[in-house]
Amino acid sequence: MPNELEPLERPMSNDTVTRVFGGSPLGVIVRLILVSVLVGVILSALGLDPLDILHSLQRLVRNIWNMGFDAVRWLWGYFLLGAVIVIPIWLIMRVVNAPRGK
């Protein structure tokens, strides 16, 4: 007879999600956004513009931003600029530091 105090096993427990993200998913996402904005500001100050890669995405959402969301547009540009660098580096670090098969 199973012990009624044992937690139910879930296919994807919090431990698994936390391990995949390297921390709390919400915390990781917030940190990635903040670091992306910071890196975007730095890259912009250095005159680098990797946004050319994302022109098709910008065209898709340009009409939405033209509705008066100037602050969002300003922040979005810095976010994209930084995210082009931060997200791939984060993914590579997660793959490289992933524990090997048990």
Task: Write up this protein.
The protein is mainly α. The chain has one domain. 66% of the residues lie in helices and 0% in strands. The protein contains four helices and no strands. It has helices at residues 14-21, 25-45, 55-65, 70-96. Helix 2 (25-45) crosses helix 4. The longest helix has 27 residues, at 70-96. The chain is elongated. 8% of the residues are buried.
Can you count the helices? 4
Global Rg:
19 Å
Reading the helices and strands in chain order gives HHHH
Average per-residue pLDDT, rounded, comes to: 76
What gross morphology would you assign?
A: elongated
C-alpha end-to-end distance? 30 Å
The count of strands amounts to: 0
Percentage of residues assigned to helices: 55-70%
What fraction strand? under 5%
